[in-house]
Amino acid sequence: MDTHLTDCIVIGAGIAGASAAAHLAADRRVALIEAEEAAGYHTTGRSAALWILSYGPLDVRALTGASRSFFESPPEGFAEAKLWSPRNILTLAATGDAAAAQEALAAGPWLKEISVAAARAMVPAIRPGAVSAALLEEGTFDLDVAALHQGFLAQLRRRGGTMALRSRSMRIERQNGAWEVEVTGGARFRAPILVNAAGAWADEVATQANIRPLGLVPKRRTGVIIDPAPWQPADWPALMEAREGWYGKPEARTRLMISPADETPIHAHDVQPDELDVAIAVDRMQQMLDIEVKRVERAWAGLRTFTPDGSLAFGFAPGAEGFFWCAGQGGYGIQTSPAAGRLVADMIAGRDSDWLPDSARLVDSIRPGRFAWPSRSIRW
Ligand SMILES: Cc1cc2nc3c(=O)[nH]c(=O)nc-3n(C[C@H](O)[C@H](O)[C@H](O)COP(=O)(O)OP(=O)(O)OC[C@H]3O[C@@H](n4cnc5c(N)ncnc54)[C@H](O)[C@@H]3O)c2cc1C
């Protein structure tokens, strides 16, 4: 069986692996290996596709902000479709829970209070009397995840990189200064650098390589598509319940995507929606919006995977030469991906990231070694 020799192996062709591989391929030979028949089959293909600067821990926000210019003006020829379109976010506090709006307002300067009447002018389906306060966040947007993801994969190919689908890592060993990865079917890949971008499976991949896992927790999140007719939601803002009990956004002009914002810890697998979560999404949405749901058109679930402190884990595993973690993207992996991939490539090359404000502090604070790593964690 052939052994493919490269400079860098990236495991996982979701948005994290695709972006990292595309950036790394600018100056090295890269092999991207993916277990499934299609890249993006897992979490990347199951997101809500929003870009929200105020969302997530501070390090995530830094990468979200640093990604903005890429979405607005990607490199020439990167994607055929526009990667973003404006979509403000309207946060709604339930009647009887005005404190929720005050807490959201106190959290930062990005929300501004508007009258409930103004909110109803934007979203006429808001039930009279159901909402006590409304907050608007401007400058947020919808993302075209498929165009972004395919753009990174095409960039990887143009730069001479390769992608192997149906190639799940089965054995990972460090031998003579290089990582060797044997995949389903028996093919082998060999490179001095291995990037672990396996999403919910990143701890499993580390374990295959005999490296201590980080304690990642995949959490199920559900999306539901409904027909809100006779309402026409195309120009509505995205909607967020102030305590994040549910959120929603227009989908394909005439439909509404809603989510109960569930975060159920679960093992890494091809996760499916739970009927109860679907019912909760509909019920919570209906407490605020006057929308009759005759049937759910589609429901899905995906795994948002978190480190123990909820922030990212990017960096070399201590004591394991050439093993680079690119994990813990949680609910922000799409909106951070352009800057995240670039940062990963810089870190691996040992380059400064001058384009990223306060990058030295950021790199230090997202290092995987912060999770109480024993000084010698690897045996081979
Ligand atoms: C309902 C929902 C809404 C979301 N909304 C947003 C949003 O609005 N904005 C945002 O930025 N983010 C959002 N997210 C989060 C975002 O989708 C994720 O952060 C992102 O997709 C994670 O990408 P990833 O590449 O790390 O994981 P994945 O896309 O899961 O990719 C990991 C890949 O690794 C492969 N793999 C695993 N093990 C192996 C192995 N051993 N060998 C080879 N390949 C392997 C898997 O097959 C998979 O393709 C949402 C997520 C969900 C579920």
Structural topology:
Elements: E1 3-5, E2 8-11, H1 15-24, E3 30-33, E4 50-51, H2 58-72, E5 84-86, E6 89-94, H3 98-106, E7 111-114, H4 116-122, E8 131-137, E9 141-143, H5 145-158, E10 162-164, E11 169-175, E12 178-183, E13 188-191, E14 193-196, H6 202-208, E15 217-226, E16 238-241, E17 247-251, E18 255-259, E19 264-265, H7 275-288, E20 296-306, E21 313-316, E22 323-327, H8 337-349, H9 359-365
Parallel strand pairs: 1-13, 2-3, 2-14, 3-10, 6-16, 14-22
Antiparallel strand pairs: 4-9, 5-9, 6-8, 7-8, 11-12, 12-13, 15-18, 15-19, 15-20, 16-17, 17-18, 21-22
Residues 11-17, 33-36, 41-44, 46-50, 168-169, 197-201, 205, 221, 223, 259, 302, 304, 329-335 line the site of flavin-adenine dinucleotide.
**Largest sheet, strands/sense/barrel:** 9 strands, mixed
Shape: elongated
Q: What proportion strand?
A: 25-35%
What is the C-level CATH assignment of the largest domain?
Alpha Beta
What is the end-to-end distance?
A: 24 Å
Rg from Cα = 21 Å
Count of the separate structural domains: 2
Bound small molecules, deduplicated: flavin-adenine dinucleotide
